[in-house]
């Protein structure tokens, strides 16, 4: 990457050190312009992206100035040389802003924003809604609402970055937002190709409602709860099925808020109603506008009182007691433990004598154990006479283990009427013999008797007919040959013999 690039007007821009690097590009400081930074893409942007950047920087300066109060809007395109395609753009430098998940996540908040209480979180939610309202008024759809693009400062002001992914419209052409985070994507877009869908402000309003819920409810997601059906319920599936875990239809949808979560009645009725509208099946038509959120959050902020037990706690007036102390009594963590410490509240370190004194202050339980009485009118039976009256003494173990052989046992004398030796064992035959041949039965000799059977008349007739037929033919044949030779002339006989 060259250190010197040119803006779209031909001005020279000298790039400074890298501030941040992401998957899409690198953000660098600009020498001589401390209030601005340059975003340089890793890969050359597509012609559509270049056209979108050109359209964004071409908006009226008053409009861009208004948007830049809450967003890092592109104000110049950057080029390697004059006339070449854009390789990045210049935007406002948003220092001292952190990703908003560091604010709403209780664990990270103790580190990044240790002094922030519920009042500040309400203020951040209100400012977030106001930023959305500004962008929507100028026809901008954020599209990719997520916990990293929305940034927050120590003063709870909001800045939205990655503006080059916003959806804008220039004349008749719509430059879409091609990306999105599923947990901030509305039900009607879940599982769909975002590249092929034109977003609306109503889609942004779902992401805004999720963001405000995160801020007010200690980082909980409105669709992440205890699923009472079989298997696990992914957040994306719950969003698609409108399974709002805190809503009026949560029980019907087999959902419950997770344990130790902030009860929904800790919010004002206006906020509860807005969340219900934002996450119900009817929300696909119209969700609460950012201005409605601003109004409801402004009202809610005014009702917050400081807890007398813990300086870090703020609770709404309509509850009449501190919701955070109530949660802690139910074994929930102190979500604002760092705030009390920051305000100088005494924090008990582990001191055994102090802990023991606190244990001593615990009241003993009022219930006492008393042994049940024996039933009256009961008389014991006498001990059976056939049983020993004492338990036999336990055999004593040998004191030491010795290797000596035990003495030989002493047997009684052999009875005189028994043989003194075992009978001899029968001797088995040394050679195995085959069993004798069975005797041959004397059968009478077979005598063949031949009987001469006289042929039947049919057989005789069948024999005589061919004989009687063949005999005259033989005689006639002989006579023909003999007579011809005797009666013919010698030459003719010779010829006939040939
Ligand atoms: Zn409290």
Protein architecture, described:
With 498 residues, this protein is of the alpha+beta class. Strands 1-2-3-4-6-5 form a 6-stranded antiparallel beta barrel. A hairpin with a 2-residue loop joins strand 10 (168-170) and strand 11 (173-175). Among the domains are: 4-92, Phosphorylase Kinase, domain 1 (2-Layer Sandwich), CATH 3.30.200; 98-304, Transferase(Phosphotransferase), domain 1 (Orthogonal Bundle), CATH 1.10.510. Helix 5 (118-137) packs antiparallel against helix 6. The protein has helices at residues 47-57, 61-67, 101-104, 106-112, 118-137, 201-216, 235-240, 269-279, 290-302, 323-329, 337-342, 352-360, 457-487, 490-497, and strands spanning 4-7, 12-21, 25-30, 36-41, 76-79, 86-92, 98-99, 150-152, 158-160, 168-170, 173-175, 226-227, 255-256, 304-306, 314-316. It is built from 14 helices and 15 strands. 28% of the residues are buried. The site of zinc ion has 7 residues, from helix 10.
List keywords for this structure.
flat; Transferase(Phosphotransferase), domain 1; Phosphorylase Kinase, domain 1; binds zinc ion; 498 residues
Strand order of the largest sheet: 1-2-3-4-6-5
> Percent of residues in helical segments?
25-40%
What is the CA–CA distance across the termini? 129 Å
Q: Characterize the largest beta sheet: strand count, sense, and whether it forms a barrel.
A: 6 strands, antiparallel, barrel
Indicate the CATH class of the domain at 98-304: Mainly Alpha
| Arithmetic mean pLDDT | 87
Alpha carbon gyration radius: 56 Å
The gross shape turns out to be flat
Unreliable sequence segments: none
Helix- and strand-based class? alpha+beta
How much strand content do the residues show?
5-15%
